[in-house]
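Entry 12.
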Amino acid sequence: MDVFTDELMEKRTLAIGEGRLSQKHLADLRGSGLTDETIVQAGLVTVSAEAAEEYLGYSPGSTCLVFEYPGTTPCYRLKPERPLVGADGRKRKYLAARESGNRLYFPPSFIVPEDVADTDVDLIITEGEKKALKACQEGFKTLALPGVWSWRTSSGEDDGHTEPLEELTAIKWRGRSVWICFDSDAVDNPDVRHAEDALASELRSHGARVIIARLPQDGENKVGLDDFLVAQNADALREVLAAAKPPAAAYFRGGTFVPMWLAQELRERDDYIHAVDPDSGIGRLYVYAHGVYLPAGLVDNEAQELLGDGTNSNRISEGVGALGRMVTVRNDKLNRYTDLTNLANGMLDPLTGELHPHDPAYLSTIQHPVAWDPSARSDLLDAFLTETCGEWADAICELAGYLLVLRNTIKKLFILHGDTDTGKTTLMNLICAMVGLRHYASVSPLALGDRSRRFEAAQLEDRVVNFFDDLPPGRISDPTTLKILTGGAEYIRVERKGIDAYMVRSLCRMVFAANQIPSCTEKTAAWYGRLCIFPFAHQVPEDRKDPKLRQLFSHDEDIRCAMLVKAVEGIRRLEARGWKLEGSQEELDAYKEINDPVMAFIAERCAIGSELKVRRTDLRDAYERYCREHDLFMLGSARKFYDRVRSDSRFAPKRINGIEYFKGLALDGGGQ
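Predicted 3D structure (tokens):
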């Protein structure tokens, strides 16, 4: 082999234009997109037919391009300028020495031993040396097979007498991602598909994550990896690899489905967590995307796509179930970084203004769709807040800021109160747009205060605010749930149909808009202390109404960013005040009277004094007339009315000559 080796070494000392390669071979390599630098790094040269014959043991009939297969015992594969026609009449484009066996092609200078040992290095396996070299040149670590079955000791389908190459099994595969990327016609070639499945199964048995990458056809012409990269670019190949999926056979062992393998593939493709209530075992699967964990509602579809023809509902359920068990976390671990607010462009510390990069480790499921820009301003927003909110503009911005932090420390139910056309809905739409559609609910307090509708509270799970606009007049029959929701409790109990009740973290704040605030059966200081009422008194004149303003405030990104700046300023004021936020005392006093029509009637229509008295029936008749005049809720029975009057220590029942009186008050105009 002295002639072959000597000529090979001599040619490698030559530059590209000095006879290193024949013009045909050089054109062939450049047609595959290889640069002169890559050609030299790979040691590619053209040798004479005589030198090639000495190595091969037979005449190639023309000069040959030499591809060296590095290793302890180097070997070579040669490409003659003119394909060699065998005795069977078939043209042979590539030649190998007799008895040389199969080898893997590790492109010289591109694939080093450290790559083979490091399982964090992703690999591509293709067919053909030029394809591997082109891919390596573009930054993809790629190995080549001489033929689709050449990963075995003898080429051809496994007949029970061939084994995987030692070079293949010596690579550390466990935990490594590897793409098999044969020519584009593989999808229609049963033999190639068979070889592809067999190789995938072999690599999978060594713990590799195996994905099949399909190159698109170019009309009737098949496309190899080098062709694709020449016609497209590296980014296009990255898109192909990202869209690729493992073969369905990769999730089966001897025909038996292995759910864990499907779960591992799902986990490799995306970051998942399964947040579980440790007491009930009820949980929800989330997938990480764009800086936040979102409900993984499409995971079944992803599993079905991966299973392909092997899909059925049981396998999907088993695979997704195995995934959930792999990524389980306690639900009380979510959203624990309460000093940070997840925004579109990072994790903001609102007190310092520092913006941190997103990271799955935050376990954040709440992200607000607005970016932090401390310089953001809007004259339109400033004018709106000044005109609509007046002296309460700062407090409204503090409320907006409070809704962005992951704490439920202000024990208030917030009410925007005013007539129609006072800007309540426009403001709520703006705050909703800043908070994000996924993070607010819209459940009426009348429903939350109705025991017969106990499932309503489940809509508040994973929500940071419950906005309800245009609250209708009515009566809250049982404020227990509302008091719990606004009481600062860390967890609340929710019920869903067909599922046992379970505990969820309470982050949902209550904000309602109303022309008339509903009455409530409870009249205690504890209930009134929960209410924070902001008055909206400025009604927009008809000639100044802008029908586009509401939509503009909901969709304009610049206005949302400006509102975020005001909300963050509000957070800082709340922090300085110890997180206290109060509404209008005048509005609250007015509501107390309306909410308790008995006391409102006494305050407006009665005189108070220890020497005064009034017949019970006269007092009751006057109360009913008062309620009808003011369209107020009327207690349903005389007994309830009398009990309410008696509950005030200033008034005491008294029987005189068989007639029932109340002492301590009298109707204006005199008492009996």
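Annotation: The first strand starts at residue 45 and ends at 47. Residues 102 and 150 are 6 Å apart (CA to CA).
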